[in-house]
Specification:
It is a single chain. The protein is of the alpha/beta class and 298 residues long. It folds into 2 domains: 100 residues, Response regulator (Rossmann fold, 3-Layer(aba) Sandwich); 180 residues, Orthogonal Bundle (Hypothetical protein af1432). It is built from 14 helices and 5 strands. It has a 5-stranded parallel beta sheet with strand order 2-1-3-4-5.
């Protein structure tokens, strides 16, 4: 099999030796058509998010192996979005090499599909609208509050799809597994775009972005994140602190507010729109009452 190698020279020699020992022919920098491609992020980056067209001599993405020492979640998400289904981070895993050579997807299809009669449902909880009313009082009309509630309720629709349910139930995800789960933002966006819900699609894409640029999938920051997505980030973070999880106990209201205000090692106040966070803090007593009366408290 002809294999094109586009990786750091430190890795190149060992990889070439192993592939050739398995009977494959390797090429470096060639423009001949190959059946497989190994590349690192530096060689993939120019083609992410459709910046440049893919070289015509590259095989299709399901035949790529992305090989690198370390990649951030946003980098992994970008590679998956381009169609890469084989990724191995240092140290190289033999199982990943085997899956790639045999075209056995390591990363499953992350697109959301449902039968027409069994599509996803919006997730409107009893607290979302009154929370929006408290935070956006004096800024949004009643019609705007209702429209935002309806659009925001679709933000996690991809998590209803079977592959994301499996990932979400996994107790401890590795870096690649977390990136697959995080891809629900883009999968949800695509489904909503296809079903003529542009505002909901934008919120689905951006509701894990952070004001300080540390979020995903695009690491955008500040006002580049739509206001509804910034509001969803604050709402989801508060609820996430209040709810018990398999790996963490539920926090009471005061502790949750303290973590939003000062950070806890995972959440940081810089992740939130500062004006929304200030409005949240000003309304915190009403929010505490709202939560205690909601279905979420049970």
């Amino acid at each position: 099999m002809n294999i094109l190698i586009m990786v750091n020279k430190v890795v190149d020699s060992a990889l070439v030796y192993w592939l050739q020992s398995q009977g494959h022919t390797t090429h470096s920098g060639a423009t001949i058509t190959c059946q497989k491609l190994v590349l690192d992020y530096a060689n993939l980056q120019p083609y992410l998010w459709s910046r440049q067209p893919l070289p015509s001599h590259w095989p299709s993405p399901e035949h790529w192996l992305l090989l690198d020492a370390y990649l951030q979640h946003t980098q992994l998400i970008a590679a998956m979005h381009l169609g890469c289904r084989h990724i191995s981070l240092a140290p190289i895993q033999a199982v990943h090499l085997g899956q790639w050579l045999n075209t056995q997807p390591q990363i499953e299809d992350l697109a959301c599909t449902w039968p027409d009669a069994h599509g996803p449902q919006s997730d409107i909880d009893t607290m979302l609208l009154p929370f929006i009313q408290l935070i956006m009082q004096g800024l949004w009309s009643e019609a705007q509050q209702l429209a935002a509630t309806e659009a925001m309720s679709w933000r996690n629709l991809a998590l209803q799809s079977s592959q994301y349910q499996r990932l979400n139930k996994t107790h401890k995800l590795d870096t690649i597994g977390f990136a697959q789960l995080a891809y629900h933002t883009l999968a949800g966006e695509r489904w909503l775009q296809q079903h003529a819900r542009p505002k909901a699609a934008l919120i689905a894409r951006q509701h894990h972005e952070h004001w300080d640029g540390s979020g995903y999938p695009m690491s955008i920051a500040g006002p580049d994140i739509c206001l509804e997505a910034r509001l969803a980030k604050l709402y989801d973070s508060y609820l996430g602190l209040r709810k018990a999880k398999t790996y963490a106990q539920a926090n009471d209201h005061a502790t949750s507010v303290n973590k939003l205000t000062y950070g806890d090692g995972y959440l940081q106040p810089s992740q939130f729109d500062p004006q929304l966070l200030e409005r949240f803090l000003n309304a915190q007593q009403a929010i505490a009452t709202l939560y205690s009366l909601s279905d979420l408290a049970n």
